[in-house]
Specification:
about 15% strand, about 110 residues, two-stranded antiparallel sheet, alpha+beta
């Protein structure tokens, strides 16, 4: 199944997590980004570095080190759930409250 994310516009093939979970992930990133002064893509990158969702690779042509970020669109439901929990905990440490999924979707 091909799914186009309504938040980032990327076409993704994933059947292991729901669109509801994907939406909530982007809501969490958006809330945190708004509070800290980042757009959603910047905040996503900051969080990936903060939580270790990246690896350093070497450009074979130039020898330059580059960062390769994990793609959230490729996360299964367990990985995405862990990432969301990390985001909520990080936000709380910054004094930023993010509603639970149940609270968010009841609005």
């Amino acid at each position: 199944m091909i799914y186009t994310c309504s938040h980032c516009g990327q076409a993704n093939e994933f059947s292991k997590r729901s669109s509801r979970m994907n939406k909530y992930l982007h809501v969490c990133i958006g809330i945190l980004g708004n509070e800290l002064g980042y757009d959603i893509e910047e905040m996503k990158s900051v969080l990936k570095v903060h939580f270790g969702y990246y690896k350093m690779t070497v450009n074979k042509a130039t020898g330059e080190e580059v960062i390769t970020y994990a793609e959230t669109s490729k996360m299964n439901s367990k990985e995405c759930g862990t990432f969301i929990e990390q985001i909520i905990r990080f936000a709380s440490e910054q004094g930023i409250l993010i509603s639970s999924p149940e609270e968010y979707f009841q609005k």
